[in-house]
């Protein structure tokens, strides 16, 4: 007996949704990182902080954005790298909120509001990616692996 094949039509929509959520994250994250790297002095002045943290965070964000883009590249993003991105985004959002609450960044109120706002955006990316991964796995029987024409014992 042949089980119903997982057709491209069954997984195209959720895979596309997940890929778009990952790519949006990659673009926004890399863009934010480049902005921190290229305009660290005026941003630091605006947020009333030192430039060094912006340069470090900017470099990290560019590298992380590239990794997220690589995760989004396959037509069906693999589950474990996608989960890693989701967990990293949740961690980033939580640490950002804690840093804002305890004043660890030493920014003015505008910088603190920016920290909270970007934490919300990153948490939103994690939520979109989680939904996309769950939809993809629901359509592929719990895995994002191509299982076309899987034979089951009769």
UniProtKB/TrEMBL annotation:
Keywords: Membrane, Transmembrane, Transmembrane helix. The chain crosses the membrane at residues 21-39, 51-72, 84-105, 111-133. This is Integral membrane protein.
């Amino acid at each position: 007996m042949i089980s119903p094949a997982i057709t491209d039509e069954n997984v195209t929509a959720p895979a596309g949704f997940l890929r778009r959520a990952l790519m949006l994250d990659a673009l926004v994250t890399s863009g934010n990182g480049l902005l921190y790297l290229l305009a660290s002095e005026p941003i630091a002045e605006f947020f009333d902080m030192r430039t060094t943290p912006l340069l470090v965070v900017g470099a990290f964000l560019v590298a992380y954005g590239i990794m997220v883009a690589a995760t989004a590249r396959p037509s069906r993003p693999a589950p474990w790298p996608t989960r890693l991105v989701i967990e990293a985004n949740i961690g980033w959002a939580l640490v950002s909120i804690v840093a804002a609450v305890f004043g660890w960044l030493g920014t003015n109120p505008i910088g603190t509001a920016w920290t909270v706002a970007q934490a919300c955006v990153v948490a939103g990316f994690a939520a979109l990616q989680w939904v996309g991964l769950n939809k993809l796995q629901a359509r592929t029987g719990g895995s994002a692996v191509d299982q076309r024409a899987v034979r089951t014992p009769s």
